[in-house]
Amino acid sequence: MRQKADLAAIRRRMVAEQIQGRGIKDLRILRAMEEIPRHLFVPLTKPRATYCDGPLPIGQGQTISQPYITAYMTELLQVKPSDRVLEIGTGSGYQAALLSFLCAEVYSIEIIASHHVRARKIMERLQYTNVHLRLGDGCEGWPEEAPFDGIIVTAAAKGQTPTTLLEQLSDDGRLVIPIGQSLYDQQLVVYTRQKDQLTAREDLAVRFVPLVQGD
Ligand code: SAH
Q1: What CATH number corresponds to the domain at position 83?
Q2: Per the CB 3.0–4.6 Å rule, which of 18, 61, 132, 151 could disulfide with 175?
């Protein structure tokens, strides 16, 4: 009981200092991050340490993003409660959990089986029933459920944004993806679709593990 209260206090501090303190204003994102037990999403770490201000390893060379980056990318997506959103790179499942508080349905694809299985167990345990997980190559999207109001890619594309993903974006939809040739040269790119017109703009410099991308 005591540990539960301690972790809730640590979460509130994380949100106040790392998220709100750096300019994230969307109250729904702030409240959800106060709520979600981030420590359950990060394996093999002391619970308190999972609320630190940086990315952490989750195994198989992959990482859970820094809380601020998760919040920032979510704010860029501008999701509405009625939206259906696709994520590429489930990883720990934390980003999908955050989205599950903000929109109607979340679809998330992961290419590494052990991460997919682990995320599925956590979603079941927490009863985040609007999160749908699939094992496979996210670059193919999720055609049966397309189009999506928002698509978020949480691994970095080398150069090209997979066209299949852009095609699965609904009218007025947004796609957020890190793009860059190396770990030290990546930028978030935000695509917006209006009718058949796609516009792209560059945003924050970031560091993400590479997207496994067939050419
Ligand atoms: N969103 C995650 C962090 C993702 S780390 C979180 O909140 O924890 C990036 C993840 O993308 C890794 O788990 C990696 O295995 C996965 N990935 C890389 N290429 C992929 C692809 N083509 N399709 C689906 N997942 C992929």
Answers
A1: 3.40.50.150
A2: 151
